[in-house]
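hiii so my PI (J.) wants the whole complex modelled not just the main chain, which honestly fair. so below is everything: two entries, each one labled with what it is. i double checked the lines twice but i was tired so who knows lol
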Amino acid sequence: MKELRDLATKLLAEGTVNVVLGWEEGPRGVRPAFATDAAAAGRLVFDPRCTQNLVPYLSPRRTQVKKLGKAAVVVKGCDARAVAGLVRETQLAREDVVVIGVRCGGVIADPASPEPLSPATVADRCPGCNSREPKLADHTVGELPAAPPGESRRDVRIADLEARTADERWAFWQDELGRCVRCHACREACPMCFCERCVADKTQPQWVDSSPHPRGAFAWNVTRALHLAGRCVDCGECERACPVDIPLGLLNLKLARVASERFGYTATDDPAVPSPVGSFQKDDAQEFIL
Amino acid sequence: MNGRTISRSQLAALVDDLVGSGVGVVAPVRAPDGRLDYRPVARLEEAVLDGGLPRLSLKSLFLPPTEPLFSFRKSGPDVAIDSVPTTFPPRLVLGAVPCDAAGVAALDKVMGWDYRDELWFGRREATTIVSVACGKGDASCFCGATGNGPAGTRGADLLLLPLDDGFAVEVVTPKGEALLSAHAGRFGEPPNEADVARRRAGLLEGRVEPVGSLAPVTAWLGGHFDDPVWDGIALRCHGCGACASVCPTCHCFDIVDEPEGVTRGTRRRNWDTCQTARFTLHASGHNPRSVQDARYRQRVLHKFSIYPERFGELLCTGCGRCSRACPGGMDLPDVLGAIAARAAAPAGGAA
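here's the output for the full assembly
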């Protein structure tokens, strides 16, 4: 913790950055922090409650953050994939942000929970994590903790869904997406949903009905999932933001696996690795093209 | 308490009576993921009474996330309008959380203000609300600060207070009285007053709210639209609107025409929220609320200044859902505390 605070204080004092995006104690567990002075830098924390991905705050849409000036952002390995995603897709110049990596042993799903990290509380994305030490970082702090506890609950759920009939899967998603109210919190909290004008907001023509009836809920959630196929960094922010707890991670992970099987791509914090939608290979599978 | 008692078994029989006579009974139901949702029930056993806050508030039963306003059909040069029903079959909400029922009552003001919203009041008139006193508050609850409480009766027709077996029943409105009279045999003698008082006190025992009286905040807000307190107030806000979706009183909606083929379509209203940038985006490209701080200020002002000024009450019932739902860690009591501190500071009073 001291290493992180000292580094943040130094970056601010020497003027390398104007603000350090990290985490601090809040009224409900830890919350995103925007440290602009030594006092605030001294309040930064990193522990297994720091589940929030702070990279969405680098979006040009966050004008309230943008006006604080040049930023450093504290990232876990999963969050670093979001930085890489933005650099890969030319939304962020690498030199415009200072990346502080933290070595991570997994985080709990709910940053407000007082429970310790355990197989019961661990975030879905953590068990089996292979990016616990961000490679895309200007500075890396902390010791590498033990591997995240528990086993992937999503593997079990995806296998369970894959074993069902199409009708059963349809019923499952009708029930889950039936709760969608089309607030688009998933989109706003997503680091990779950076479109200035989302297809769901277009009205001439209206590609996606804006109503949260079954047609609109399916159109929106399927469209978003497909737009994130091969781009999703699996930070879990969409699912955490969803006010009605739709298991969006299942959709995104399933499509990430398809992208991996078909195009050999897995989300990485190396921005030089091209994404399947951003590159063309002559040996790409083509048999699905009509 | 002016009422009666009802045992758990008689309450189950009452639900059977109502369902049997065609009344739709809605109650908090445990979803497969463990959360509660207000859903239709066929039997009392399906309901979870006093289990805490359902995921979406009671508002969704009166102002659904989407609803048709009318349909239209084009035939040559003529357009025919098919209206939607504005009367609804009888319905009973069993196990409303008091802060949710209070939210519905607060919304009656704006829904009946310059235009009487037929769909809202159609559902209101068809629905009897039976609240159950809340014993499940947590550190994000501040219903007391908003003038409500765990045994608040605002918006309820009947209030049930849990006893050892069953409930003490407080009659709040004539509609509640009518329900009680129509099923008088299901209800027992008035409860023991001392027991009721002890249990009501028990609901408040050990409760510490995260924010104190809101009167100074409300008084201060009106003249401080441009106060420095707003600068950076929404730094961690993603503008995602999850708060508005779960809020029992946020009620903004968008109106859209959805074509169904070439000659038909439906006009619908859908939930909307002032927390997104698009909410105030003009066709010209200008946005009067161009920064999230301004959008968050709007949320605070509407709830704690504009609505009280116009309708004499807060547009917040202290349920705390917004804090729990926020992915960015925005916490309304924390913000209100900061505003209260600003209002109390010597320089804070200056407009």
